[in-house]
């Protein structure tokens, strides 16, 4: 099993998507157990996903003072 395929599967799982065809949860777990590089990659990918989720939460929080966040004007 190629590391690149495992990382695609890890990424899909973190995004709440299903595993890509041809990869089972068991294969994924077995590879992560055997491959330190992919374990490290998964840890970083998870941290990044959580970081982005926090940024999104912060973005939807109303700004103090009632000033609406500026949005770029749409081109006509
Ligand atoms: Zn690997």
Walkthrough of the structure:
Helix content is 62%, strand content 0%. The chain is mostly helical and 76 residues long. It has one domain (3-58). The protein binds zinc ion. Zinc ion is lined by residues 3, 6, 31, 35, 37-38.
Looking at the structure, what is the overall shape? elongated
Helical content band: 55-70%
Mean pLDDT: 88
| Sheet with most strands | none
- Pattern of helices and strands: HHH
Strand tally, please? 0
Uncertain spans: none
How many angstroms does the end-to-end distance come to? 49 Å
Give me the Rg, rounded. 18 Å
* Secondary structure tally, helices: 3
State the domain count: 1
Share of residues in strands: under 5%
Instruction: Name every ligand kind in the structure.
Output: zinc ion
Q: Structural class, from secondary structure content?
A: mainly alpha
Characteristics:
single chain; 62% helix; 3 helices; binds zinc ion; mainly alpha; 76 residues
Question: Which secondary structure elements does this structure contain, and how are they paired or packed?
Answer:
Elements: H1 3-14, H2 25-34, H3 36-60
Bound molecules: zinc ion (ZN).
Q: Could you write a compact summary of the structure shown?
A:
With 76 residues, this protein is mainly α.
């Amino acid at each position: 099993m190629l590391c690149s395929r495992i990382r695609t599967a890890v990424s899909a799982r973190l995004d709440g998507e299903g595993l890509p065809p041809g990869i089972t949860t068991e294969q994924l777990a077995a590879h992560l157990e055997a491959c330190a590089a992919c374990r490290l990659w998964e840890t970083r990918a998870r941290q990044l996903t959580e970081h982005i989720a926090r940024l999104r939460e912060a973005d939807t929080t109303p700004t103090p003072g009632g000033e609406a966040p500026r949005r770029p004007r749409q081109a006509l």
